[in-house]
Amino acid sequence: MAKQRLYKIIFLNGGKVYELFSEGVTTSGLWGFIEVSGLVFDTADGLVVDPTEEKMRQEFENASVLHLPIQSVLRVEEVDQRGQCLIRDRESGEKVTPFPVSPPSRSQS
């Protein structure tokens, strides 16, 4: 039995770096785009374990196929197993955006 292919796609979207998994990646019929189909998310019912993955699932819930501009795609990897879907900050590479910190108080001297 042939093993089903799984791809990790890393791309830019709205100033963030998205990492998601799909079952298919091919050139699109739209010139300058790639086609990403069969998006794979965690199927565990019940508690939301990863809010980032839940956000991505909601963002792409009605998309059967994504057509991504070639310029936005950073990397496509063929992987053996699904990992964690991520949204990173483009500049810092941080997985989580830090809470704003108030400036230090001025000393009254």
Task: Describe this entry's structure for a reader.
With 109 residues, the chain is mainly β. The chain has a domain at 18-89. The chain has one helix and six strands. Strands 1, 2, 3, 4, 5 and 6 form a six-stranded antiparallel beta sheet that branches. The longest helix is centred in the middle third of the chain and has 9 residues, at 51-59. It is globular and about 70 Å long.
Identify the notable features of this structure and list them briefly.
single chain; 109 residues; mainly beta; six-stranded antiparallel β-sheet; 6 strands; 8% helix
Mean of residue pLDDT values: 82
Q: What proportion strand?
A: 35-45%
Judged by helices, strands and strand pairing, the structural class is mainly beta
Question: Residue share in helices?
Answer: under 10%
Oligomer: single chain
Low-confidence stretches: none
Give the N-to-C terminal Cα separation: 77 Å
Rg, alpha carbons = 18 Å
The topology string of helices and strands comes to EEEHEEE
Quick summary:
It is built from one helix and six strands, in the order E-E-E-H-E-E-E.
How do the strands and helices of this protein lay out in sequence?
Layout: E1 6-13, E2 16-27, E3 33-40, H1 51-59, E4 65-69, E5 73-79, E6 86-89
Antiparallel strand pairs: 1-2, 1-5, 2-3, 2-6, 3-4
